[in-house]
Amino acid sequence: MSDPRATLPRMQSEQARQLRRERKRLKREEKRRSFRPPPTDASVTLQALAPMGETLLEYARPLISGLLLADHGPEELKAMLAFASLFWNAVLEEEEVDEAVPILARKLVGKLQMPLTEAFRLSEALALRRVQLFGHDPRIVSNVEVSRDGDRLRVTARSTVLAEDAGRLRAGGGPVTR
C-alpha cells in the first residue's frame, strides 16, 4: 500500500497523487511555452508572398537565361539559384546598390570567369531588380534545393525574416527599410 500507517483514506491519497501530477504537468507546459518564440503578426503578412522557391526563380530569370544552357539539369540550376541568392540577400534598398555592386561583380568574375565589365553590368541589373521588383519582400534565402518532378524541375527554397525586419513589418506593414 502507498500509505503504510493508513492515516489517509485510500481515495484521498489517490486525489493527492493526481493533484501532484497535474501540478507537474502544468509546470512542464509552462516551461515549453517559455522556450517558444512569441507569436508575431508578420506571419499573416508573409503568407501573402509567393513561395520563396518561385520568387527566387523569377528573380534569377535573367541570370539563368543568360548563363545556363536550355537543357540544364537540377545540379546546374541549383548552383545558379544558390549564386542568385547571394545577390538577393545582399541588397534590400536602393542605397545599398552602389555599395554591393563591386562586391557582387568580383564574385561573378571569380566564380564564373566573367569579364569585369559584363560582371558589373549583370550585378547592377540583379541588384536593381531586387530593389525595384522585390523590394517589398523582406525574406533572406537560407537554402535552395532543386529536384526532378517528372519532366520538370522543382525548386524549393527556405527563407527567414530577420527580427528587425519582422518588427518593422508588424509596425508599418509596408516595405522594409533598414
Task: Give the helices and strands, then pairings.
Layout: H1 10-35, H2 42-46, H3 52-59, H4 61-67, H5 74-90, H6 97-112, H7 116-134, E1 140-149, E2 152-160, H8 163-172
Antiparallel strand pairs: 1-2
Please provide the count of β strands.
2
Across the major sheet, the strand order is: 1-2
Mean pLDDT: 79
Number of domains: 2
Overall geometry comes to: elongated
Largest sheet: 2 strands, antiparallel
**What would you report as the Rg, rounded to the nearest angstrom?**
26 Å
Structural class: mainly alpha
- Portion of residues in beta strands equals 5-15%
Helix tally equals: 8
Distance separating the two termini:
68 Å
> What percentage of residues falls in helices of 4 or more residues?
55-70%
What pattern of helices and strands is seen along the backbone?
HHHHHHHEEH
Residue stretches low in confidence (pLDDT < 50, at least 5 long) are 174-178
